[in-house]
Structure formats: structure tokens, C-alpha cells
Amino acid sequence: MQKLLIEGGHLLNGKVKISGAKNSAVALLPASILADSPVTIEGLPQISDVYTLSDLLEEIGGQVHWNGQNVTIHPEKMVAMPLPNGKVKKLRASYYFMGAMLGKFKKAVIGLPGGCYLGPRPIDQHIKGFEALGAEVKNEQGAIYLRAKELRGARIYLDVVSVGATINIMLAAVLAKGKTIIENAAKEPEIIDVATLLTNMGAKIKGVGTDVIRIEGVPSLHGCKHTIIPDRIEAGTYAIAAAAQGKEVILDNVITQHIESLLAKLREMGVTVEESDEQLYIAPRQPLKSVDIKTLVYPGFPTDLQQPFTTLLTKADNTGIVTDTIYSARLKHIDELRRMNAVIKVQGGSVIVNGPVQLEGAKVKASDLRAGAALVIAGLMANGVTEITGVEHIDRGYEKITEKLTNLGANIWREKLTEEEILQIRNS
Ligand SMILES: CC(=O)N[C@H]1[C@@H](OP(=O)(O)OP(=O)(O)OC[C@H]2O[C@@H](n3ccc(=O)[nH]c3=O)[C@H](O)[C@@H]2O)O[C@H](CO)[C@@H](O)[C@@H]1O
Ligand SMILES: C=C(OP(=O)(O)O)C(=O)O
Which terminus of the chain is more solvent-facing, meaning fewer CB atoms within 10 Å of its CB: N or C? Predict the structure, then answer.
């Protein structure tokens, strides 16, 4: 186990390359199960979620050949091996094995997923979709059992707009007989990326990027080559870090339209933001002005950037209010930021940040991925040294974060936890 140490106060300057999108990668890999021949995916991020899914594909009999950031998956020998325990609990996206295995084998046993604790994260809409397609679904002893004689297309209205349910139903429906219509579907760029892969595999999908997706089932799908989209949340995190502690930072490999909601807020705060082909230039002007944000489904402000943005607001003049309408309990970073001198109140479902304050280095814990990102940014801004434990959460979603920030001029390094620190974490 490791901890991350940051000596704050150094200005970020230079260029950082954004990696492939985690939330696409974690769906593209399971989608390969649906093909009858090899699928190559290029530009995958080197993060632990990707490696865990790669291991799970091998557990069900897939052959997975890595070549740097590119992977070729041979699905020919895959079988409907139950995955009730073990690695499925390490991440959220193992739930995509449900849709993909149900679609391909008409049966699956998959443990309930893990991932960041953001308050309750039900999967009732995924199950509603599988049942509408003709599957029998049972939840027994922490695993979901799915079985269908055959899958038949259906009209499915999602009661809540869900990224995971939209993708999972798409995965199950592409090999179903007849037409599936997903209404009130999510519109996130990662959904379009997954639909692009499936279409390249021979699936017939229309309407992705709108709230009605139409799928005409096909009898089989074949292999293909696909390049993943850039990670808009990683890009957003570096953009926020640059606004908080940057001189001039260029983000390379960005689809800037994917983070317009963030860029609009940065501009409102007085940050210089210039967009060009696949690049973003960020240069903060002091002092920053406070703004309010409310997270919404895409193209609204992403919940995954709410925690890092809260850190930025500690530096802004006056009061900023953060409201997360997707995960109202996504608040575990707040106490840690307070340890670092932030003045933050949680009131009536909103987070009220009073700035500007000078953050101070402290020992803090990343309880989830984006809380970790929020604390890394806080560490870059703080006086003195910040020690962050819970690094395994950060490594689920940020490729080479230490190296990327070092290249931008940060003083950040990893150390092994001592036995005593490991004990303390276990007992806390
Ligand atoms: C692997 C992945 O892509 N993770 C992302 C995905 O998570 P995930 O797919 O789990 O999130 P959803 O879009 O499904 O969740 C949105 C909201 O719907 C609720 N809900 C969801 C499904 C369901 O069956 N029932 C239900 O009530 C959730 O509790 C939440 O309040 O989208 C979230 C919202 O953008 C992001 O924070 C996560 O980074
Ligand atoms: C919440 C997140 O991830 P997951 O859904 O994989 O837990 C995230 O990426 O911010």
C-alpha cells in the first residue's frame, strides 16, 4: 500500500496529455464479449479498473493481448463462467459483464458491483431493462443471476437517467431478436463511444446521444478495431488543477465540447480558457471569483468533477455553492478539506464554500476516486506537505498521475505505507 505526498505551492506549467476515457474503457472491454472474432481497442488508459476488467475477461476464457495502451481481445473461447465474487467487487463497471454475458450466452452470474461509495447506487434500472428483454433475474447472496431462453427486443423507459443502465441494456439488446427502444436514455459521450464500437462490430443502433436509442437486434457480431475517446473527467481534473495552481497549462488530446459546462464555469471565475483543435489552454487570473455549480446529467456539470471543483472554490473570493443532484451524498472529501483549513459547510443538501483561504498541508484520506482528485489538487495548492492515503482509489481512474503532475512542475511522490500506518487505516 502506498501514500501520495505533495509539497504544495509549485505552479503548474507546460503540457499534459489526456488519456483514454475510464468510463468508456470499462464498458468497451466487456462489450468485446459480444463479438465472435478479435476486437482491438486502442488508447486505453493504464489504470487499475482496466487491468481488473482485463483479468475478468481472462477468467471467462478470453485471450487478452496487450501492446502498450492497445489491447486485442480474442472472445472465441469465452464461456458463461459465473463471477460471483473476487475482482467484480473491486469496481463499479463489472456490472457490464451482466449485459454483455446475458446478450452473448443468455445467462450470467455476476457479483454486485463495487466502485466509489457515493451514497446508495442501485441497479434497479439495469434489472428492469434485462427483465423487459425477457431475462429472469434473481438477486441471491450478493450476486445477480440472469437467465433467458431468448432475448426479445422491448420498449424500455428508464425511470432515472442512468449511464450504466443505458449501456448495459444496449449490450444485452444488440443480439436480441427484434427492436429495442430505450427511452429517457443517458447521453454521455461514453455511451456514444460504446455504441460506435458495437456498430463497428455489426450492431444496428440509432439515436445515441439523444434520449431515445433504437436498436435492431442482429444474429451475431464480429471483431473490429476501435480507438477510445479522451477522458473528459481527467481533462476536467487537470483543467481545475491548472485554474487552482497553474501558470499556463495546455491539455492535449481533449474533446473540448465534452467539458463545456466546466469551461463555462472556469471562464465565469475569471480563468483564461482557450480552445483549439484537440487542445485546451488554461491560465488563471487572480483573484478568482466564486461561482455556484449544480451537477446534472450530460451535458450539464458532471458529478465526477464536483469534488475537484469544490477544492478550487476554496481559493475564490466569496461564497460558492455546490449542489450535486446526481449523488447528494458525494461528500466524503469535505471533512478532509476542512482538515486542510477549508471553510466549508454542508447545509440543506448543498455545500457552501467560503473563500479565499490558504490551504495547509495535512494527513488526509481519499475515500473515493474523485475525493482523491480533490485532495491532490488541494495538496498542490497548500502550504507545506500533504499526505494522502487511499491512493488505490485514485489509481482506479488516473493514469500516471504522479508522473503527469511532476512533468507539469509539481513536487509529488509516492511512499510505501509503514506497518503502523497500515494498521491505523485498518482500524479507522
Ligand atoms: C463506470 C461509470 O461509468 N461510472 C459513472 C456512471 O456511474 P453509474 O452508471 O453507476 O451512474 P448512473 O448514471 O447509473 O447513476 C445516475 C443516478 O441514477 C441512480 N440510479 C442508477 C441506476 C439505477 O438502476 N437506479 C438508480 O436509481 C443513481 O443512484 C444516480 O443517482 O455515471 C455516474 C453519473 O454520471 C458517474 O458518476 C460515474 O463515474
Ligand atoms: C464514480 C466514479 O467511478 P465508478 O462509477 O467506477 O465508481 C467516477 O469515475 O467518478
Answer: C
